[in-house]
Amino acid sequence: MLVIPIYEKNYKFKDILYYLLMGLAGITVLLVLADKAGVFNVNGNNAIRNFVYNTDMGVMGKSPEYAFYYKVFFKTSPLFVILLYESLKRQQFAITLLSVLGLVFSGTRANVLIALALVVIFIFKQQGMTKPAMIVKCLAIFMLALILLFGSSLIIEKLTSMMSSKGATYSDSIRIGTMESYKHLFSHAHNILFGTGMGSEFYNLGRSDFEASAEMSFIELVRQIGIIYTVLFVGGILYPLKGHYSILVKLTFIGYLFIAATNPLLYSTTASIIYIYMYLTFFESQAEKPLPQINRSNVKGEEYEL
To answer: Which chain regions cross the lipid bilayer (predicted)?
Structure first.
């Protein structure tokens, strides 16, 4: 419902979102750089870290057990995929770098893998570039080829290390336990069809505690509202993909959904922002469709003045 007044009133939603995400990505990178310089401690008892935790905005810390050592994750960090796309569309490559660093420093494997995949796809798919942008694109392709040629073994080693870090292993063990809980719940047909109720708790074997939500968003949605309403909900959020606009926007949205699949980001305020973004893109594409042309050679009889 929020899409209609935003679209009708012509609010600069995308521009506002772009600059807000730019600021948040900048804060993420600055916090990490400040920690590196020794002027701030992401693990310390300080006003910024306390504010983040007291307002439940995200998590902040550093540890060898994390996949990328640093984890400065805000609940809106996955929206950096929008910043990544918009910056490439606007050919503001410094902001592209900022968005990638923001996703990397957020510390989650899904964010990083999706960011890297999108960058590679964008490099090869982006069209209509200016001459400087084409030079950047050619250099990026050349550097990518060199990395794949000479650094493939190092890349495999880093990916293996990322996937098998203590933090990643702990997260995977939680998900395995959560899946066991789902298997038990879904052994009853009515839980699959109608769910156990929005906001209801279940005993999560992965955490050995009762929880009202879990990280596996799509399955968690089925648990809460059942398969029937889940299909309707997913159909609603996927509907904008039928619009006639850049495939890169659609890939950005699909990338977010992959991130949301392993994080509680499918039905939240963060999710609502990207849903509004996609519906606005869809409506804009519909408004830009050309009117059908009349083939006058097939029109017989008198001509009428319109």
So the answer is: 16-34, 67-85, 97-122, 134-156, 221-241, 253-280
